[in-house]
């Protein structure tokens, strides 16, 4: 009887599995295709031009961070716009700009209830430690601006 019980258990296990439906197979193939395109960074759709104005009214392409995050929305227009250079910032990649960013945010925080403020970071390598952002404030990195974090 022992061999017969094993055979019955084996039959029960086989009976629990069924062949996948065509819909399941199509779904799996579609997901694999989508993930393989994402991995190879091929674009299935043409990039959508996102029209919004940044500093000085320039139109930026959809490769920018803001375009990816905001989609078709516009960046808020701030009443006050200043450069990090106005606060002593140096974009050489070796000078620490932590105090310049902190000073700029502290100063521009005063414009929060007056339409907000925008701090423009021009092209360059901007080494900085941590600093806190504030409400009604836009930190705008111009093309070629890279922020480097220090410890």
From TrEMBL:
Q: Which Gene3D superfamilies match?
A: Single-stranded right-handed beta-helix, Pectin lyase-like (2.160.20.10)
Q: Which of UniProt's keywords are assigned here?
A: Membrane, Transmembrane, Transmembrane helix
The UniProt entry, under SUPFAM superfamilies, shows: Pectin lyase-like
Q: Which residues cross the membrane?
A: 20-39
Classification via InterPro entries: GH28_Enzymes (IPR051801), Pectin_lyas_fold (IPR012334), Pectin_lyase_fold/virulence (IPR011050)
Domain of life, source organism: Eukaryota
Q: What is this protein called?
A: Pectate lyase superfamily protein domain-containing protein
Q: What species does this protein belong to?
A: Citrus sinensis (Sweet orange)
């Amino acid at each position: 009887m022992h061999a017969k019980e094993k055979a019955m258990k084996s039959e029960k296990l086989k009976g629990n599995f069924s062949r996948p439906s065509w819909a399941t197979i199509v779904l799996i193939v579609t997901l694999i295709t989508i993930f393989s395109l994402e991995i190879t960074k091929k674009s299935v759709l043409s990039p959508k031009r996102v029209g919004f104005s940044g500093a000085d009214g320039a139109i930026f392409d959809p490769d920018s961070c803001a375009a990816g995050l905001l989609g078709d929305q516009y960046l808020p227009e701030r009443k006050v716009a200043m450069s990090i250079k106005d606060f002593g910032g140096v974009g050489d990649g070796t000078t620490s700009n932590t105090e310049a960013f902190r000073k700029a945010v502290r100063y521009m925080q005063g414009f929060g209830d007056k339409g907000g403020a925008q701090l423009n970071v021009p092209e360059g390598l901007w080494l900085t430690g941590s600093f806190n952002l504030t409400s009604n404030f836009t930190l705008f990195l111009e093309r070629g601006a890279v922020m480097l974090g220090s410890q």
